Amino acid sequence: xxxxxANRTAWHTMPPEDVLETLGSDPSxxxxxxxxxxxxxxxxxxxxxAEPPSRLRMFLGQFNDFMIWVxxxxxxxxxxxxxxxxxxxxxxxxxxxGVLGFVQEFRAEQAMEALKQxxxxxxxxxxxxxxxxxxxxxxxxxxxxxxxxxxxxxxxGRLLEAAALRVEEAALTGESMPVRxxxxxxxxxxxxxxxxxxxxxxxxxxxxxRGRFVVTEIGQQTEMGRIADLLAAQxxxxxxxxxxxxxxxxxxxxxxxxxxxxxxLIGAFQAYPGGNVFEALxxxxxxxxxxxxxxxxxxxxxxxxxxxxxxxxxxxxxxxVRRMAERKAIVRKLHAVETLGxxxxxxxxxxxxxxxxxxxxxxxxxxxxxxxxxxxxxxEPAGEVxxxxxxxxxxxxxxxxxxxxxxxxDQPVGDPTETALIVAADHLSSDRIRPRRIAExxxxxxxxxxxxxxxxxxxxxxxxxxxxxxxxxxxTTARLHGETVELDEATLARIREINExxxxxxxxxxxxxxxxIGDEPITEDGAAIERDMTYVGIMGLVDPPRRxxxxxxxxxxxxxxxxxxxxxDHALTAKAIGDQVGLLEGKExxxxxxxxxxxxxxxxxxxxxxxxxxxxxxxxxxRIVEALQRRGETVxxxxxxxxxxxxxxxxDIGVAMGLIGTDVSREAADMVLADDNFxxxxxxxxxxxxxxxxxRKFILFLLxxxxxxxxxxxxxxxxxxxxxxxxLQLLWINLVTDGLPALALGVDPESPxxxxxxPRAANESILERRxxxxxxxxxxxxxxxxxxxxxxxxxxxxxxxxxxxxxxxxCTMVLAQLLHAFNFRSETRTVWSxxxxxxRWLLAALFGSMALQALVVYVPALQHTFSTEALSxxxxxxxxxxxxxxxxxxxxxxxxxxxxRAAQVAR
Length: 907
What we know:
alpha+beta; Rossmann fold; Calcium-transporting ATPase, cytoplasmic domain N; ten-stranded mixed β-sheet; eight-stranded mixed β-sheet; 32 helices; about 50% helix
């Protein structure tokens, strides 16, 4: 197999019998024993997934962050200094973060595998001369496979027989129309894939006809496998949030380590009694003071570095991913959630995403009489009621001149257009028995029509369907109101007018005609019988838009998100759907041929004004993405084919189809739609915005709280010879305030206005200058409340010991930070407003954390561990006053800020 892959055989140039001989097969197929042996030798017929990291490597990868490296160093130093409790506390938080990240990545991969299993195909093979159904993954080279309309081609192979066979190869080659296949050898070793019309390729699908082929390549050796190998070599890109968190982590770590070093120097200076430095270092008292100064510096570093940040980011993203999965959007990487929130432009497929991907007959024209067909199969005549006999004849032609069929489960199988015709005939016709077919002239892209000959009573009758302009050229009479009349110019003009009106409103139209042919010979080109035919009527078919799409696009417009349709369908059809769902808004429609003649600069200049790209090939999608990104847009691009994969990779958010998408497109995407629905993308954007808002809330909360801890330790170093807060107390503050409250902010209820404002800029930083100032001044206010408490308790409250003053400062910092979390529920409302109190998890975190704080203050064993003293009621009233002081000041600042911004908007 590997040798053949390296030096691929030109199967398309060989006669069928030579191909079978080369592969050791014959028309009766392989024996079961031979097939089993080959399966064991060469492996299953499936694409080899990209080599996933081991579970251990996936877990260890969660710790590859500079901020976490600093915390690991702190663990080692704390352990060496004998502060085992500190080391255990930090380690527990880091392990929790790693476990959460690992579990989410593992679950995402499991979801992808489950999705693949849902779409696992089967194949009809000939083994030992008998037909059998086997899982496609069990096919081997040399197997003989039968193909019918609606089948998915399970492997690459050389056709042995082809009867009116057409294969949809858009997933591989980008060819928008089904390709006609044949079994004869071709000339030219270096023909492109699209020109190798006697080969079939894995993951393409049979549109019309039937065929038989011998498997020549399986799994990774198929053309799909080769493209998958190329994609696997591409490196994933970091999202803006990942880059920003890494930068912020390094900045915080560098700043805090510098402050911690200064604090240690101050502590060392205070410990130095004077005299000989080396003699002083030898005294136990100085050593003890230096050790304490080192521990305070380490604790300050640990307190200032938000070690809970990675874990809470992971939890918030994981919860966002879970909510999206419940809404049919499978996000493959956590940080893609954040990128969704900044999406400014969505490029969507039409078929199956904006529409139902179900062709349906919605207009009947019997002669000149029009009727609309509603989804419940009721006819609504636009004028005169059509003649019943002519209508029955029209439906009979549609169902008989047709290669689609009903399967064993009564589901239509075959080309979507032809299945729509038999479904309409099944619902609208009173006669379900169709005349026996005795001959056929298959559809041809050049002829643009199909003709079948049937035995109707004692007569032979030809039925024709095809493009209306083509069919009408072969008609000389018409059925009007139950009579056959001459097709004069006036009647012909009326028919063409009806057809053009239907086509301009998005319908795909087919005309139907018939003629009794008696004993006339049936030629291969149909010329003998496709003449002097009688026009019977026209059917208008459409792939209707999903009902929820119009509302979803309206939401996008309110949210400042632009939406464009990128489709291989005709411009008129695309424009009609665009009008129905509110997509156009007066913007441009261009076709693939126009796009071909545009330079990159011309596309760059106009790309934001184009809302529909019609008749495009998959490779055009990459140009569209690149042009939009040059304009500064954050682009979500949908796709389902292999040729879509480069565009999905390049887009900021690649969105693959879960139902009709290829495995390669899913692997290239950041998100997979389990229902292929555009509204699901919009819902994912909503969730992404909500998650990002919550991320910003708790990141600013954590940093402002940690800033207050840095400032309180730093400032009290100058006014007291002893640490205002001990190392374990600092760690405890972080544990009870950076844990549950921050996590509660991470699951804050979604704002009802989250989709009523424009998307944030992709380069917008969570810590922009205004936010940096917010972190500093809010942290400074909390520090101010703590300092007032500490100075008052230490200097002005009679009978209070230094330990009690320290305990009161300890409790003040905890309570102030817990209350501060409510400041982030709204940027305009006070802490005490009903909206700020709506997060029940935050209320639970407040009371739960204060209950834990009470244990530290009143349980004797914990008092000894944390060096605390029991506080009286009056002490707690003082603590509450000091904790509320900064919260009240922050509330005042929010109210004045909101009024100032409102005044600016009004001006």
